[in-house]
Each structure stands twice: as C-alpha cells, then as structure tokens.
Protein 1
Amino acid sequence: MKRARVIPVLLVRGSGLYKSVRFGQEKYVGDPINAIRVFNEKEVDELIILDVLATEERRGPRLDDVRDWASECFMPVCYGGGVTTLDEMERLFQAGVEKVALNAAAAENPELVREAARAFGSQSVIAAVDVRKGWFGGHHVVTHRGRKKLAESPAGYVMRLRDLGAGEILLQSVDRDGTGTGYDLELVRDIVHRVDVPVVAIGGAGEVRHLREALAAGASAVAAGSMFVFHGKHRAVLITYPDAETLASLTLAEGDGPRATD
C-alpha cells in the first residue's frame, strides 16, 4: 500500500488569494505567501498555484510573483495560468516550479504539449482539463474559465493530450468547484480507465470521505481548494490540511494506478 497524494490548490488574482464556486462567486481569502507558510508547517505533499486572470488578460505568468511563491515552498509546486510558450515554461522552471499546467494553451496549440514534453520531460507537463455537464447529460470540455466549449469529448481530448506527451491530467469538474458536495465520480471513473498516466481529481471536495471516494474511483491523487481554506458552514477562512493519521488512511493499493483500456 502507498499513501495517495493530497494537494491543496491556490487560486490567485493579482496579489491576492481567492476561492471560487463553479468558477464564479470568487471570495478573497488572504495572501498567498501566508497560506504557503501554513501549508509548509503542515508538510503538504504538493501545491498547485493557478493564476485565474492570466489567460483572460492575455498575459504570461507574473514571474516575480511565481519566484516569490516558489521560494517560500518546502514542497513541489505546479503552476498554471497564461503559459503559451516553451520560453515561459523554461522561465517558470528556473523560478522554482517543478510542473507547469497547460489549459487553454493545450486546447489552442496542442503541439505545445508535445514540444514541452520533449524539452522538459512528460513528468513536468500537466494537462489541466476543465469539464462541465451538459444540459442534456454527458460531459464536455471547457476552457477560459468555462466560457469556451470544445467539440471533442473529455475522453477523446484527454487521450489525445496523453498521446502528445502530457505526464499527468488535472481533471476539474466545473459543476462541483467550490461546492463541497464531492467529486464527479462518474467523470473520474471514465477518464482514469482511458489513460495510463496519473489523473488528479479536483472540484467538489468538502470532507475526507470525498477524498476517499475519488481515490476509490481510480484517481491517482486528489486536489482541493475550499476544503483546505474554509472552515464551517459560514466558510470562515482557516488554512487546514488532514492530519498524519488521516493521510495515512488515504492509500492506493499496490499495483493500482494509471491504466488504459480504450
């Protein structure tokens, strides 16, 4: 048995840290550096930092900010937001991040995924895939904070990104984002059986049992935002993380992991 990765996700707008609900209703929750320092004390596995305005503002990563955040982190960091070129990725790695998440750029320029995997290794290239349920059932991929819909199915899109060289899939349920109602397990089950790379489930975690459910559904790791920054029904800001005993119970069976059947 091996313990599963449990990954906090920080959403930044400018110099502030925010949390959203279904990619809207964003609430300010503090300073990213303060949150990072608390997570250092709690010895988190990894940290994902996403700049939610970069693509909308058509700009690249704020490298000075990324460098400041990464310099404070005692854990591996994945950064996403506004990355569109190999040069930007190289500068991010130089700034101290270990992985770069590609979302809109992967949809608009899929060859960037292939080029990045060749240049930096697949283990450093994460495909961030946002998925929303349709009005008449099924799922579809969206980009640009949910405003653009792709014609390709989630399964087909994820498999294509894997074939291009993405070493990990960050699978986000837009409908569950910030709700605390649990992950979209149907979506997780569908995707993890399609690809032989790790799938990180994100969107909907509100309690530890939700983490267990996603892992049981086949996710290689679980990520969450609200669960680790809010406390109680009034959503008071409090940076938290499961204790050592709880983390030890979140295990993957030996031999379990990425597998593809289609």
Protein 2
Amino acid sequence: MKHLIAKIVKIIVIAYVVIASGIFIFQEKIIFHPEELSADYSFEFDNTYKEVFLKTEQESELNGLVFFSNLSESKGTILYFHGNASNIQRWGEYAVDFTSIGYNVVMFDYPGFGKSKGDISEDILYSDSEDIWKWTKSNFPSSNFIIYGRSLGSALALHLAEQHEPTQLILETPFYKLIQNRFSFMVPFGLKYEFLSFEFIQNVNCPITIFHGTNDQTVPISEANKLRRYLDNNDKFIIIEGGGHKNLRKYELYHSELNKALN
C-alpha cells in the first residue's frame, strides 16, 4: 500500500514539473493568440478608416488603423490597446462605439498580430506603445486625448498613462497582474511576462474608468476589484451584472456609462 501511494505521489510530482515547465517554455503561445494577415489583406469595416504603418525603435513594423469620427468635428482621439488574440480586423469592429459619438480611434496590432512584424516581449510592447503614443499625438493632436485598454491591452494602457498624462484612462476587463492567484501555483519558476497593472495604476494622474463583468471567467471580477484600492474618489469602477470577458458592449449599462465618461 505504501509503495502504491509513493508511486502515485511520484507520478503527481513528475506531472506537475512537466506541466509547470511546459507553461514556462511555451508561455508566449499560452499568453498570445495572434492571427496573422497577408500583406495584401484588405480590411472591411462600415466605418471610414485609414490604414497606417509604423516602424518603432524596437524594429517592430506595426500595422494600424485610424477610424474617423462620424461628426464633422472630432471630440477627441482615443488610443485603443486591444486584447491578446486575433488582430485589428476583429478589434476594429468595436471602433463604432467611439466614432458614433464623435471620436477618432487609433488602433495598432502588436508584433506577430495581423500584418505587424517583429519580436515580442513585455519590454518591446511597452516601448512600442510609447512609439504609438508619439505617432498618434503627432498625427492627431487633440486637447482631449484618451487611452483605452482592453484585457491584456489594459496593462499597456496603464503603463503608458503612468508615463504620460492623457485626458483620461478607460480600462475594460483589466487584471491586477498577469498571473492571477488561482494560477500562481502552476508557475513556480515565474514568467518572463508579469504585466504588473497594480504597480502602474498607482502612478496614474488622470481620471480612470474601469468596466468589468460579474461573470468574467477569464479575469474574475475579484482580481479586478483589487485595483479599486488605488482609485480616487472621482474614478469609477463600473460593474456589469452578468457580463463576461468578451461581451460587455452588449449591455446598455456599458454604453450609457461609456457615453458619460466620454461626454
């Protein structure tokens, strides 16, 4: 009996080490789920848009889209950092939420996503976002400049807002840090990617609005709630009852509160 228990324990330990090692080795494939696009791919949107390219200091060749306000005069510019999957063909569909109420939207793919080329790492993403900021400020100057970050993009948005001072920062389904408590036991070796949102948010000096759903299975609201301690009295944490990780824009509360924030 003791021999059988020892054998089972040994199998469990070996399996744990194999899985934990696999997570460390293949972490890019676990964290990022890009969909590449051919260089001649033609985007299709109902919104008026312009395709742009940007060569960054990290030698990334980034592909981006600019969506234009539906109003004759723009109310401002929104720099949008998307999630960890797909490409801007998908994410560009959300631009209408902002262009319909008078904003220009700038959105770039990360290296390896869509038509964007280059290596990827946490530092490269931060550096590239800085170059995107500079490009956007130069090409679409505005007294009302907003940074919007969704899921993984919320960490990049926070890091950028920490370095600069946009008019405001809006975060959708953000996380406290990349490795949530419920998964930390699986990464005893740590990861090359940390995305410490809780550190960045402490140094942000502009108004912050956070959207999160109570039924988010990817980033539980309990993780996002940890960011609330760093919010000021004038900041907002909007809870979407029943909302998940990918569907907040289906809820009227999201749109009504987004309109309040932007208007």
Protein 3
Amino acid sequence: MTIATFDITLLDIAAESIRHGLEHGQPAQPQDYPAALDSHGACFVTLHSAGKLRGCIGSARAWRPLATDVAINAFGAAFEDPRFDPVDNDELDALDIDISLLGPATPMTVSSEAELAAALRPGRDGAILIDGHRRGLFLPAVWESVPDPAAFVSHLMDKAGIERWSPRVCAERFETRSVTRPARGR
C-alpha cells in the first residue's frame, strides 16, 4: 500500500465515521480496510471550519487498530469535544479534516519548565506532561499558535492542571505525520 493510498483511506474512514455519526449517533465500525491499518496506532483528529478549530479528540498511546482509532476519534472530534456543540448536517461539507499520526513518545530527562522549554524542538515536537492523574498533551501543530517555547510549556502545564514543576512531573516528546482533507465545500 502506498503512502498516498494509506492517507486517503484514513481520511475516508474519518469522513465516513462523521457521516455515520450524523445518521446513527455513534462512530462507524471500519470494515474491509487494508491490513496495514490493523496495526495498533494512535492519532488525533482535528476539525476546522472556515479556518477555526471545530473539534479535536485523540489518543496519546497506540492501543487499538489504527483504523478504529481514526473512526472513534473522528466521531469524538465531531460530536464529543466539550468545547463545541456537535457538528450538524449543514457543516459537514465545510469541515477540513486533519489526522495527526503520533509516533512513539519518548521520555525526556528534564528537571524544570525552563529545561523542558530548552529541550523541545519548536514546530517538530509534541509534548506530554504527566503528574499523577494529571496529564496534558500538545500536538506539534500547537507551535503555530504558541511559537515561544516557554509559553508552550506554560500553556501545557495549565492544560494538564499542573500548578508548578515538581520532581514528580514526567515529560515526553513525540512527532507526528499529518494528513489533511480540505473541506469539500471549497
């Protein structure tokens, strides 16, 4: 399977799951997809409408077949992101669909916010912060709106609900590969 075919198939699964959600109120169950999508994979599905965020849901770890992860996260981005009302039929053709395929997360040896900010590669690294039950994740795409590394780390700590750095805080980095389908209404 070529990369282009792989990407198109993922985007088709995401779009079908959103359509299925509009009709049935639940994600599609991908069937008859290539064996390459049966491997465990993690992704985030991000939806935009007219250039504005419309939903984003994903998995930080690979724990189910990638085809299933895409279908469930596309449904979640469209209907379960608590920041937005559910997508409706009138919006469907105006949605840009972006799937960020997460590479493996690798632990970082840092002991402060400043060390983390200095170690991150802007535009390239996504980051995960963990402190007990608190956790937050930023995709590399967040660098577009928060290009300053110190601000990136500060916002990530806020998202995770971590008030201050402590020896318990664990940091991980990961990279993504994104595939995008522009809105059909354009």
Protein 4
Amino acid sequence: MPGGKHPPGLFRLSRLLRGRRGTEWASTGHQVGERFCLLNPAALAKIDLPGGAIGGLVSVVSHGVGDAAPLPVLQRLVSGEAMRPPSVCHLQALRDGSSICLSWVCRSHRGWGWNDGVGDPSDSFTERYRVTASGPAGQLELETETPATIVDVGALPAEAGQTVEIEVRMIGPMATSPPRGINLIV
C-alpha cells in the first residue's frame, strides 16, 4: 500500500518464528491469507490442568470490558501436548556394509536456547527411544537408551531397492514424542 498504510483489519506479518519450543509438528499446514489471533503475551494467564484432564473437554469464556451476553464459549479437547517430550532432531542414517547406523540428537524441555549446539540439559527422566522401521514387508520396532542404534539391513522390512520409513520417538514418562522420520532405500 502507498505510504505503508493498510486497510483496517489487514496486517502484514513478518519475521515469524514457527516451531519454537518443540512445536514444529504444529507449524505445517499454515497458508497465506489464513485467519489468526493477535495476542498480548502480558495478558495471558497460565492454567494448570491435572493429568486426569487429558482426553476431556475444557471450556473457556472470553470476557472483556463492555462485552455483553451471550459471551462466546470455546471448547477444546485436552490433548496433553505439554506432557510429551519434544521430538529428536538431526536424525541421520549411514550405511556401513550390511548395517544401518542411526543417530540423532535428544532434546529436552529445558535449555531451549541450545547454546552449545551439542545438546540440551537432560529432562528428569531416563532417556529411552522407540525406533520403528516400516516397509512393504511390515514393521520392525526396537527400543534403545542411547541416541543411536545399529540395524542389520537384513532385518529391515523391505527387499533391495524398496523404501523403508524409519521413525524415532523419545519415550517420556507420560507419553511419547512426535516422530522424527527419514526414508531409506534398502
């Protein structure tokens, strides 16, 4: 617009940072022209819900100065996302003869700044990971307590030239992380 002016209700958003603090799973699917809600972080309040609320509905009523009844009510399913560990990052698969060497970097709910580029301070629970390989011949699943594992190519559920999808999830005390995946051609 000339002079940098926009019509009322039209905003230009720039320098947005998506996928912060383990929410990268929710950053896909956004489109140009999509509706949004502009929030004032100072006006937000944290509401702690008990673990038993997961799977239930929570109702929120929006009420501002001068609002008249009926007030808008919003209901949402309590998914428990905050109880899931963040997904792993930097998943790599390297072939070494008849083995696939898988490695990744653990992330935690602490140390979001990732200042040293190596790893975050550990969460208070033991590291455990579930590695799943899915292919035309089925699924292979294994667990490990280290951020790396070696899989024999012959154990993968695919023949030579076929694709296998490998997913790694961190196993937390209450839930597993969203998956981090990679596709391999056997």
